[in-house]
Structures are given as C-alpha cells and as structure tokens.
Amino acid sequence: MGVKLAKFNIGTSKVRFLIPVIPLVAIVLLIPSFSQAAQSPVGLGTTSNFAVLAGSTITNTGPTTISGTAGGDVGLAPGTAFTGSASVTMTGVQHLADTVATDAKTALVNAYDDAAGRTPVTSVGTELGGTTLTSGVYGNSTLGITGTLTLDAQGDPNAVFIFQTASTLITAPSSSISMINGAQACNVFWQVGSSATLDTGSAFVGHLFALTSITANTGATIRGQLLARNGAVTLDSNTITNDQCSAASATPTASASVSASASASASASTAPSETAAPSETPSSPASESATPVATTETGGSLPNTETPWNLIGVVGASLLLIGSLIWVFRKPRA
Fold first, then answer.
1. pLDDT for 36-68, tens place per residue?
2. How would you class 40 by CB atoms within 10 Å of its CB: exposed for 0-12, middle for 13-18, buried for 19 or more?
3. How far apart are the first and last CA of the chain?
4. Could you report the per-residue pLDDT of 136-179, keeping only the tens digit for each?
5. CA–CA separation, 334 vs 331, rounded Å?
6. What φ, ψ does residue 147 adopt, rounded to 5°?
7. Is the separation of the CB atoms in 64 and 238 below 8 Å?
8. Of residues 317, 305, 293, 310, the one with CA closest to residue 33
C-alpha cells in the first residue's frame, strides 16, 4: 500500500511536534552502536619488551625460562635485587634500576591506569572458571579461576578482553585459560588492585598488571607478562612467553580450543589462532559444537545463534518512525 506524503498538510503545530521527535529517534538508533563499541588494546609503551617487571625485588627458585617475540627482558626499579637469576634462562636483557627499567615502570603506571579506567564494565562473579566470555571489559572486587576460563574472539583476531579487580586475582592449581575462535594472548589484560597469585601448574594468559606483587608458584606457565607496579615478582620453575600479536586476518580461524600452556621450545608450526603460541593443545572436538557467547556470572556457555539484533532494532525503529510520521502528518478525511 502506497503512501503519498505530498498530499499531507503539514501544519505549524505538527512541525513543532516533530522537532523533538527526530533527535529522540536518532539517539535510539545510535545507542546500540555506542554500547557495542569495540575496545582497543591497552597501551603498553616501553613495557612491551619486558616479560617480567617489578618494583622492589625479583626472586626465582628452580629452572625458569623467559622468552618471547615481543621481548624477553627482565626489569626492576627502583629495587636492585634479582635473587636466583642464575637459574633463569632468558632471551632478553636484565635491566636492574637503570634508565630502561625506570622508563618502563613509568609506562607500567600508564598502562595500569589505562586498564583500570576502561568502561563500560560488565560485572562478573568472583569465579571465572567454567565460563565463556566474549570481548569486553569485566570486573569484580576479587577474581579467581578454578578449572578453565574460555575467551571467545568470535572470529575477530583483534578482540580485546580486559579484566579489572580492586583486590586480588588468584588462580587455582592446574587452572587454565582457553583461547578460541581467533583469540590472542596479546589482547588479554588483567588489572589487579593489590596482588596476584598464579598457583601450581596454572596456565595463565595475558598481560598482568598488579599494583603490589605477583607470585607464580611451581610450574605455572604464562603467555604474556608479569608486571608488578610497586612490589615483588616471585618465580618458581616457570615458563613465561611474551609474544606479539599475529597479523589480523579477515578469515576467522578454526574454533579449536587451545590451552594456555607455554613452552620455551615452541616449534615454528603454531596454532592457527596465534603466531608463535607455545605448546597449545587442541581440546576435544566436543568443545567445537557451538560458538559460545558471553554468559552470566554463574558460568556456562550458550550457543551463538547469530541473531542480527542490531539490524532488527534498526528496522523496528525505522518502522516506528515512519508510522509516527504518518500519524502526525495524516490529513483527516472529510
């Protein structure tokens, strides 16, 4: 059924009525775009070269390996004591209270503040294990991981995951972070308001910014960085791999879930979701049955039905606007 708008008699009062309506409808249409804006990576500055950076001391027990394509440096400022360094195999350089370390500490303050200031924040439960999260900013007063936390990039290799906690981050023994659908360790950031503990055998992923100290217990592996702003970093037979992001690809990667375990002797054949991601172990095919989406804080994953809600919302709002205009400008029949 056609509508001949040219025949409508637009009265002055109706024009006045229309003036506030148009901006209101425009705002409604724009809200989804603003609310779903993608996060950019946290700015690392000169900390990007450091796999480990601390404020007071660095202590190591047992054989620890530190490497990475982004940089395998170890830094300390203003402290100077790196105990147990003889047992550390590293591809980078030690910077103890020198200008490089001091500059990196300044960059760490900026990175910490950047991560802490990201919004909007989605509240999650203290326990992240057993949940599947898509890109975004998540927070709680304390955070912990027992079992496996899954980060789903939904085919976007640039997807950014930021976690904020005002207090502690504690991972349970043998806990892990699984990266699926193109998620990359270089795009995961943790801002911790006090101290972080990665327990025995944990497989951790991301850039870890702690206001005070970081403890990596026996055998914990880290794909990312351990950056303690004011306190100490304590190591015990760990493997730390600070890799760069792989080049973004328009083609979604396979949705195979990979573990966060790192290995100093990573081969050139890496997982499709990341470049030089060490010791990534594919999960069972059962985990690939559905692409999960963000869940509530109680955990669990839901199948992604890929319903185009943005398009549906825009179409619905447009139809509402057209209907409103027809009602406002309609000419009563004689």
1. 468 999 999 999 999 999 999 999 999 999 999
2. exposed
3. 21
4. 999 999 999 999 999 999 999 999 999 999 999 999 999 999 99
5. 9
6. 85, -130
7. yes
8. 310
